[in-house]
Specification:
CATH architecture: Up-down Bundle
Strand content: under 5%
Number of strands: 0
Number of helices: 7
Largest sheet: none
Distance between the termini: 12 Å
CATH class: Mainly Alpha
Number of domains: 1
Low-confidence stretches: 136-146
CATH superfamily: Nucleotidyltransferases  domain 2
Pfam family, one: HEPN
Organism: Gloeomargarita lithophora Alchichica-D10
Protein name: HEPN domain-containing protein
Shape: elongated
CATH topology: Four Helix Bundle (Hemerythrin (Met), subunit A)
Order of helices and strands: HHHHHHH
Mean pLDDT: 88
Structural class: mainly alpha
Length: about 150
């Protein structure tokens, strides 16, 4: 059952990646940022679930990958640090990009440069996390059981 959930998270992240271009093209940079955070969260959590790691109730699960580095031998120390850093950085924009605030209107606040950075973060995380699946594909037996 865990493998199915991991596969679901991974696949939904991939679907969302395809949707980023729609929001980008219409200039909805706030939703590009918000969706990018969701994508990164799903990709990281898919890997954690796949490896049998309980990440708790958090939107910033990057630190869990670092704490369980022995479960991810395919990730370099630099990649582990990048996962943790990007997850932390983009997590801070999660609610703001979606709800805004009295003095921050998301469609006005988020600019193309913010969307470009968020998309670059997605690309970096996707490239790293895909290694988690590359051994024998999504349906493969996880390396670690719990």
């Amino acid at each position: 059952m865990r493998k199915k959930l991991a596969k679901d998270y991974y696949q939904r992240a991939k679907y969302r990646i395809q949707g980023l271009s729609f929001f980008y093209e219409i200039g909805d940079y706030a939703d590009v940022v918000r969706m990018s955070q969701e994508i990164i969260e799903l990709l990281i959590k898919a890997c954690l679930i796949y490896r049998g790691i309980n990440y708790g109730k958090t939107h910033d699960a990057g630190g869990q990958v670092v704490e369980n580095r022995e479960r991810f031998p395919e990730f370099s120390d630099e990649e582990l640090s990048l996962i943790e850093e990007i997850s932390y950085i983009i997590r801070k924009d999660r609610e703001l990009a979606f709800y805004g605030a009295v003095d921050i209107i998301p469609l006005e606040y988020y600019k193309q440069k913010n969307a470009d950075q968020a998309i670059a973060f997605v690309s970096q995380i996707e490239q790293i996390v895909d290694k988690c699946w590359n051994d024998t594909a999504i349906g493969a037996e996880p390396e670690y059981e719990s």
